[in-house]
Amino acid sequence: MPDLIHRTWIYCRDIDNNYRGLVEGRNGCFDRYGLTAESHFIASTGIEGCTELPGRLLHMDSLGIAGLEPGQVRYMEAPDYLSPTHVYRVTFERGVRIVYGDRSHYFLSGTASIDAEGNIVHPGDVVGQTARTLENMSALMERSGGSLSDLKQAVVYLRDWADRETVRHRLMDSPLVAVPHVMLKAPVCRPGWLVEIDGIAVNGAGEAAFAPL
Questions:
Q1: The whole model's pTM is what?
Q2: Please, which residues bridge with residue 74 across strands?
Q3: Which of 201, 149, 158 is nearest to 177 (CA)?
Q4: pLDDT, greater one: 205 or 3
Q5: What one-character-per-residue DSSP string does 65-78 give?
């Protein structure tokens, strides 16, 4: 699992009450596999969602790529903009970059309005939070040889569906205006976060040491 799984999407019913259990279960799993802040975790989105079975509290999708060479998988960070997740006792990477000979694929984890100390930025202000989220995503991409213009798709998660037109208007003044994206009502893992965005990007920043895709 540590070498094969690069990205997860975890959907948690009633996230305000159940997210801590999700975190404890994931932390315990990673402990068993020897994943630590010094090695790596797995890029992830953890968001409210449900399945067709009312009694099921969690559902997870995952992405795994077999046969990658050492050095092809690189974990994204921008610690002067947003803290490592273990600062607030959760375990996932901010994003993962897969480098091929002719391109790079980027899988940005769910990103919110957070600062370098792990604090919520712009509490109660969905416009400010959207702007800071985009700033954090841009920093992650730029530190990994890309930019927000490399995004090929994005998902925007909103705690309050009434904010959708306000957020949509703010996104019109951002690189996401040219990116296929959807908006969903899906509360984020902290009640104070009003918006979260994840995405997938591709660019031509490859390295000749690796085989082309």
A1: 0.96
A2: 97
A3: 149
A4: 205
A5: -TTPPTTSEEE---
